[in-house]
Amino acid sequence: MNDTSMLIGGKLRPASDGSVLDALNPATGNRLGTIPDATAADVDDAVAAASSAFATWRRSTPGERSALLTTLADVVAQHADELARLDADDNGSLYREMRRDVDMAVFYLRYYAGLTLQLHGDTVPSEPGTLTYSVRRPYGVVGRLIPFNHPLMFAASKIAAPLAAGNTVVIKPSEHTSLSALRLGELAADVVPPGVLNVVTGTGARSGDALVAHPDVRRLAFTGSAATGRAIQRRAAEVSIKTVTLELGGKNPLVVFPDADLDVAVAAAVRGMNFTWQGQSCGSLSRVVVHRDVHDAFVERLAARVGALRPGLPDDPDADTGAIVNAGQLEKVLSYVRLGQDEGARLCTGGDRVTDGGLADGLFVRPAVFADVDPGSRLAQEEIFGPVLAVMRPFADAEEALRIANATSLGLTASVFTRDLGTAHRFAEDLEAGYVWVNEVGRHVPGTPFGGVKDSGIGREEDLDELFSYTQLKNVHINYGHL
Ligand code: NAD
Q1: Model-level pTM?
Q2: Beta partners for 246?
Q3: Which residues in the chain come in under a pLDDT of 50?
Q4: Ligand 1, residues at Cβ distance < 6 Å
Q5: pLDDT tens across 398-407, in order?
Q6: Which end of the chain is more exposed for a tag (fewer CB within 10 A), N or C?
């Protein structure tokens, strides 16, 4: 693969000081090429280009913005296989999963393309001879920072709402998985007016920080870890008042009552952990809370199913799970497996590095299940963002289940399995999470608000509110009575 370029002001270019970072294939250890390691000056250029493009883009019609997003969706769809290939090679996930991600990105580009006419305000009754109305206005330059786990899906779908609302965008993908975003930038160069979309790459500490701290970026949207989210809030506040939305991590509970169909619940626990992405998903249900009457049978069946999952190369049609994105993340996962054992939890299956079956050069961990986990322990409290599923000590009644489920600082998703209508509604009401499933896991229903409570974030995405969040309301009061 050739070395890559960033899209800044309609031009494809390297970092101004020539720095690059290696792009590595975590499944094979192969070097795929390099990505530009942007400097603060490159970020300045991108923001300046975006500011200057905003002068025109803010006056575009809803129809023009809709047409542009539709064209972008078409281009992404035409290059779906290529983009999925880049993601699978760059982040180690299974090709078929990354291919689905591209379809989701196309879906969201089209979804927001269809919503541009919804950007209306209100009229408010006031005195005779006056007219009071509100209008929605874009912020200007939006800084968009995204994580490594769904590279193209986030790069393409998370620019849709800000562009639809009339903002221009500077997006920074994760330094670990930038190839598909850079390719998206190349493709966009042919269809997007210069400066409306800019793609800068590099580390969080350098280009990420420069984007967050740029005084001309008043609206930041971040998807990533809670720790980085807090650092970004702090950093942004040093510069000026910025609107920051945060889509952060989770340590999400799955609660199983004894009236649930046990096999269905076990299958759901495996699905909900997103082993297909090595558990590297914010919404993964990584804490299972099971009633004591069915606990032992549940754990036994769960361990058997997870133990049968096969790690493999991205193109292996029989693989159930892929590689961990990089060596640091792999070490983090393995250290939590050691920690769980030190904390007295019982490792039922997996948790070791996989080196057999042609995987020795890659970063593979066998999917793990822990049981007898103390709900207050670090294994139960901290997001691992890897294939480690923790089953808590059994609960006796609904009160206790709810207490355990809510006993973390995070609150992104949660799920409850029961056939009892009262229990289902009670948990839907009282689970401290932004997205609750009942007898279901993992599904993001398009058009519904996704986002967290507590340390899992601020703001909602994938719905109409996300579009509105890229606008500010302006109120206008006209007195025409005395004319
Ligand atoms: P991360 O926080 O390490 O990095 C995310 C992005 O922020 C990257 O582009 C990185 O370069 C940049 N960054 C890092 N430090 C920065 C700084 N100081 N200033 C500016 N930018 C900085 O996250 P990650 O490891 O890439 O992704 C995993 C995390 O993302 C998990 O916690 C996961 O739960 C979360 N996530 C959340 C959602 C959601 O929708 N809530 C979705 C996916 C992932």
Answers
A1: 0.97
A2: 222, 458
A3: none
A4: 145-149, 172-175, 203-205, 208-209, 212, 223-225, 228, 231-232, 247-250, 282, 383, 385, 412, 452, 457
A5: 999 999 999 9
A6: C
